[in-house]
Hints:
The protein is an alpha+beta fold. Helices cover 31% and strands 15% of the residues. Strands 1, 2, 3, 4 and 5 form a five-stranded mixed sheet that branches. Strand 4 and strand 5 form a beta hairpin.
Amino acid sequence: MEIKKSTKADLENQRSLYIEIGLVVTLALSLVAFEWTTKPRDNQELLGVQAVEADEEQAPITRQQMDQPPPPPPPQVIEVINIVEDDVEIDEVDFETMEADDQTEFDFTPVFSDNMEEEAAEEEVFFIVEDMPSFQGGGSEKFREWILENMQYPSIASENGISGRVFVQFAVNSKGEVTDVVVVRGVDPALDKEAVRVVKSSPKWEPGKQRGRPVKVQFTFPIVFVLQ
């Protein structure tokens, strides 16, 4: 028996129509998707919100107010009034007789002497100069020999077996005199005292010169105390 199929129930007849409808719908959805835009949020609103949040998060800065002490009271000025009796005689000065004439002599003697001016003016101290100070025609070795000849070993240090090296600082001024004698590193009070004494008793040196001018030169000299 032959099977008959109704033409209305045959879907193949409308297949092309459905395909065209599907293509149209797909194309329309694609166009709508490309044309679709979203409105961006306002940047100013975002900034405003962030600013508000930042302001809310910041803690208020408080400063502790310290009580300032009251200002000290002004010093009291005590006025001392010396009451002079009426019967005190006051020598009157005749200013007319004090006027100068052609025969008036004036004394222009300086108030300060030359020695006082030299003492007031401090000498510049040098450590190395063109011509170093010399002692009795020699240098530091000659002065060391003189120290050994004139040094007296303290008896208390000798009895206690104390020896060592004392560093003495001194200066030879522009006149060749030994000044500013101090101990910069000592060993024992007795040895330090003897080192200062013997250096101060030094005879005059030949002063050092800088550019042909006598100047003050400073030394640091070791004095060795050795028990025999």
